[in-house]
Amino acid sequence: MAWLQIHIPSDAARTESLQDLLSELGANAVTCTDAADQPLFEPPPGATPLWQETVITALFESDTDPDLLRAAIESAAGELADYRHELIEDQPWERAWMADFHPMQFGKRLWIVPSWSEAPDPQGVNLKLDPGLAFGTGTHETTSLCLEWLDGANLSGRTVLDFGCGSGVLAIAALLLGAARADGCDLDPQALLASRDNAQANGVADRLQCYLPEAMPEQSYDLVLANILAGPLVELAPLLTRHCRPGADLVLSGILAEQRDAVLAAYRDNFELSAVAQKNDWVRIHGVRRG
């Protein structure tokens, strides 16, 4: 069976109403994709993550007239700046989706491996993780920079805080690379559930505790990781500093290159800062807590 597939560009303000409209017009499926390479970070509780520029894609029965469909959409939602359509053949969609995700290597030892794939290096450190809608899998530069740092660090016996843990990928990677225990912290209860599930799948659930911010214990760690955004990193500098014991490593990511100096300034008084690592538009900051 073939399908008529349409694509409509949208902004965040109109995306939800357009999705509802397409469903009312008979769409069998409606999806949204990023139109501007904008990363999504963990949303606050109850919020739905959404890109500022979006392409809405919808599937209709193959005998749907694309010109009449466009006219119906414009009648309800106003003129469309762009409207594309094509006929596509049916296929096993879940397998097509899975084909987009493959094992990824970070540094020399660390791999992230989807559950349906074989580990390319059975002797490596293989973290089992499937892609999700809201939480990181290592594909974005911000997460990749952190994973590469972890792969090159000596984590044996160390304690770790993953602040803004999302899927728990950084905490779990640290545990698989030798850390003794890790705590994860996130605003979103869904992130804590995802982190616990992923820890269970990787055999480290007994060494990972997850907390909402208000429940976080007042303690210091050997390593603090925070892959969030530059603004919160500056605002949270006193808190993250308190969680670092003297001599602890601090790894910060989610920072655009032009935001680097503001984040460095927030931590310079309490940390010996290393050279900043950069990947495309994103940077990672590393520092060691002064005694």
Shape: elongated
Oligomer: single chain
**CATH fold-level name of the largest domain:** Rossmann fold
Low-confidence stretches: 38-49
Q: Let me know the average pLDDT.
A: 87
- The Cα radius of gyration reads 22 Å
What is the helix content?
Answer: 25-40%
Q: Count of helical segments?
A: 9
Task: Give the strand tally.
Answer: 15
Give the biggest sheet.
8 strands, mixed
Structural class: alpha/beta
Elements, N to C (H/E): EHEEHEHEEEHEHEHEEHHEHEEE
CATH class of the largest domain: Alpha Beta
Provide the domain count: 2
CATH architecture descriptor name of the largest domain: 3-Layer(aba) Sandwich
Ends distance: 67 Å
**Looking at this structure, what is the CATH superfamily of the largest domain?**
Vaccinia Virus protein VP39
Beta content comes to 25-35%
Give a quick precis of the structure:
With 291 residues, this protein is an alpha/beta fold. The protein is 29% helix and 31% strand. The chain has two domains: 2-90, Alpha-Beta Plaits (2-Layer Sandwich); 104-289, Vaccinia Virus protein VP39 (Rossmann fold, 3-Layer(aba) Sandwich), CATH 3.40.50.
Descriptive report:
- The protein has 291 residues and is α/β, with parallel strands linked by helices.
- It contains nine helices and 15 strands.
- Strands 8, 9, 10, 11, 12, 13, 14 and 15 form an eight-stranded mixed beta sheet that branches.
- Helix 6 (189-201) links the parallel strand 9 and strand 10 (208-211).
- The protein is elongated.
